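subagent[fold] <- orchestrator: predict structure for attached chain, return tokens only, no commentary.
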Amino acid sequence: MKHKQIIVSEKLRSACPVFVGAAVYAELVNTDYSPELWADIEDFVRKYRECYDISSIKRMPSVEATRQAYRRCGKDPSRYRPSGEALVRRVLQGKELYHVDTAVDLVNLASIAYGYSIGGFDYDKIEGDVLELGIGREGEPYEGIGRGMLNICGLPVYRDSVGGIGTPTSDNERTKMSLKTTRILALVNGYDGNRDNVMACASYIQTLLRKYAMSDGGEVVEFGQ
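subagent[fold] -> orchestrator:
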């Protein structure tokens, strides 16, 4: 698979100097629902709730680092909650996880397991050969998945040659995955600078893809440092 070049802008680097990311590129066969995956998700959630409660969130380095990154970039993380934190909160509040499709569901599982906000994109919907991680600008158009037009000013944002495709709060409708998706790009965002954890999360996504989406496992590429 031809890889997109992923670069970190000077503005984002200045605001979040320890940032490290990992990209998972893979081919897959997406499905509406995987009973095997959901059995594992339910087992994971049960054990997760035995180990943590809602007060644990503030002690999770990956979650807190993303919140701090929002503040440094100019956004209130309580109003525009990062997706990794939102998923963890949902689980620890005793709520059921959303079911979307197998590709999205397995990315969400990895996000909960490691606390990182992970972008999951249909590779073939990304325009151009370069993705740049920057900071959202005032008035920049962005349609969040299921959220309508989203004010991304002050949010970390990945942009392709057309515009924004992903923030830690919400990915863009334009590049979202569907049952027609055959190639995935998953981006793990480590604002805590923990390279080992970021790479472990990316490897976990590979494992889930091989197990539930008939993937060849693809390749993990580190970026950001």
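orchestrator: received. Logging for downstream: Helices lie at 10-15, 35-51, 61-73, 83-92, 102-114, 195-212. The two ends are 23 Å apart (CA to CA).
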